[in-house]
Amino acid sequence: MAGALLMEISKNERERARYRSRRMFETDQTSNILTAETRGENRAKLEIARNLKSRGVPTKDIVDITGLTFSEVENA
């Protein structure tokens, strides 16, 4: 079934264009989701770093706990 669909699509330029367009859309959606997740995780880490800093936890320990860089922790 899948093979027949691919053969039909490969014969029709309009269908190939629709397929490529759909794949690009799906790839962009996946990329956008991953980017949003990464930003959210980074924001959470920065919030944790701010909380730890306010409690007097040494910067080196915060770096080890959060995985942030030294400068990211210092600027949090």
Give an overview of the whole structure.
By secondary structure, the protein is an all-alpha fold. It is 87% helix and 0% strand. Helix 1 (2-11) crosses helix 2 and helix 2 (13-54) packs antiparallel against helix 3 (59-66). 5% of the residues are buried. The mean pLDDT is 89.
Oligomer: single chain
Rg for CA atoms: 23 Å
SSE pattern: HHHH
Number of helices: 4
How many domains? The number is 1
Distance between termini? Answer: 55 Å
Largest sheet, strands/sense/barrel: none
Envelope shape: rod-shaped
Mean pLDDT: 89
Helix content: over 70%
Total beta strand runs: 0
The fraction of residues in strands falls at: under 5%
By helix and strand content, what is the structural category? mainly alpha
Low-confidence stretches: none
Short key terms for the protein model shown above:
76 residues, mainly alpha, 4 helices, 87% helix, rod-shaped
Can you describe this structure in just a few lines?
By secondary structure, the protein is mainly alpha-helical. 87% of the residues lie in helices and 0% in strands.
Give the topology:
Layout: H1 2-11, H2 13-54, H3 59-66, H4 70-75
Helix pairs in contact: 1-2, 2-3
